[in-house]
Write a structure and sequence with these properties.
The complex is a heterodimer of chains A (157) and B (150). Chain A has three helices and twelve strands. With 157 residues, chain A is mainly β. Chain B has one domain. In chain B, strands 6-1-2-9-8-7 form a six-stranded mixed beta sheet. A three-stranded antiparallel beta sheet of chain B has the order 3-4-5. In chain B, a hairpin with a 2-residue loop joins β8 and β9.
Chain lengths: 157, 150
């Protein structure tokens, strides 16, 4: 069975996210900073009559974080952990289907929350477990970061 | 200054505070009066930004005033800096903050959207009252930003 994944870029890091949790891909969205919030959940946006948290994958990846007033070119609206969140990214491409044989155990990439790896764009990209990241962020903890630190390692390719 | 305290079934009037630390709104129905800040007062009221956990330098030109809120029959004083304005927000433009956000910043209840864009956070007078009493222990069922329906 093929697994549908969305390639997304944050900084120089391309990652793959499960397409089934992506509800919509928007352009740059204005967000309002939450006072006292951690870098992984810096603000909120308005989406379809709801206020939803902004989740910044740049923080765990060690990429430059979203500053107040800054936006990224694309905003992924993801439905995870019984919540809807906005994930700003610098780029997003069309969905790619991967066979189980194409999804390899994590070996080359060292990003936190990586579940597997797959080749695309002549690179090895990490399949990121966005639901786990969001669950931890919304719950106020990021044990994965504690285990693996904040170091960013560029994907191979 | 005595802001009018009006709320209709379809909109909420907000007193907005435009300062260096951002823009905030309080349902004007909770504002009993606005007083000049008294320099050197023996007991200064708590500063709004400090309660919100916002670290922002106070601009010298920003005027300091004391909002006197009347909530559940009690009066709460709040020191604010910046320009004060009145704004009207339609009920559909006041979006309740998700629980994960309210856990981080419990004094805020809603996001106000103007012209389709997130414009400011609305402060809950009820939670301010709880904070003034000592601690925000739970999110009250009633938030005056959108009546009891939110």
């Amino acid at each position: 069975m093929m697994r549908a994944l969305v390639p997304a870029r944050i900084g120089q890091a391309w990652v793959l996210l499960d397409a089934e949790i992506i509800r919509e891909i928007l352009g740059a969205e204005i967000w309002l900073p939450i006072p006292g919030a951690r870098a992984e959940m810096p603000g909120v946006i308005a989406w379809r009559g709801r206020a939803i948290p902004v989740v910044d994958l740049a923080a765990p990846f060690g990429v430059e974080r979203l500053g107040t007033g800054e936006t990224r070119a694309r905003t992924l609206i993801a439905s995870v952990a019984e919540s809807i969140v906005a994930v700003p990214v610098d780029a997003a491409r069309e969905v790619h289907g991967f066979s189980p044989a194409e999804l390899k155990p994590v070996n080359v990439t060292t990003l936190p929350y990586a579940l597997a790896e797959a080749e695309l764009f002549e690179r090895v990209l990490a399949v990121v477990d966005l639901p786990r990241f969001v669950t931890e962020i919304l719950g106020g903890a990021t044990p994965e970061l504690g285990r693996e630190g904040m170091a960013f390692h560029a994907t191979a390719g | 200054m005595q802001p009018r305290a009006e709320r209709t079934s379809t909109s909420t009037r907000l007193l907005t505070i435009h300062g260096a630390g951002g823009v905030w709104g309080i349902p004007s129905s909770a504002v009993a009066s606005i007083e000049p800040a008294t320099a050197g007062a023996a007991t200064a009221p708590p500063a709004l930004l400090a309660l919100l956990g916002v670290v922002a330098p106070t601009e010298p030109h920003e005027r300091a005033r004391v909002l006197v809120l009347e909530v559940e029959g009690e009066r709460v004083q709040l020191l604010v800096h910046g320009a004060l304005e009145l704004a009207e927000a339609a009920a559909a433009d006041l979006l309740q903050l998700p629980a994960a956000v309210q856990a981080v910043t419990p004094l805020l209840s809603h996001l106000a959207v103007f012209d389709g864009k997130p414009a400011l956070f609305v402060i809950s007078p009820e939670r301010l009252l709880q904070a003034a009493r000592g601690a925000v222990t739970a999110i009250p069922l009633h938030d005056s930003a959108r009546g009891s329906s939110c």
